[in-house]
Amino acid sequence: MGIGVGLAFDAVTSYISGTDNSSLTTVANAAGGEAVAATLPTQKKPRTGAAGGGPSKDKTSVASKYNHSAYQNKRISLKQWHLISKLLRRFPYLGLGLSFSELVNALYERYGKEAVDKELNSNCGG
Asked: pTM here?
């Protein structure tokens, strides 16, 4: 599902900017869409409540489930498990921020360049 969202986002930014995105950009958008989808809290947790008594949500991500499974099956250490968990919690925000940046860039490509060129031409007597 995330790959499809990434490809749709790629098509939208390409349409907005009026240019074709490079193959690398298309692949990056598809991978980014999948990574964000895998790290968003969309899965039901089997239990809720934090060991420290703090609030815990009733949702988790697909990636977090795999991380937990890897730790339980002794494929990663406790330190690695904590580090991966920290990164997974921040990844959706990073991905959404990068997507927003790319959208702003596409809008600039479409509308900003024309406005800047028009302003420069009118000030330079062109």
From this structure: 0.58
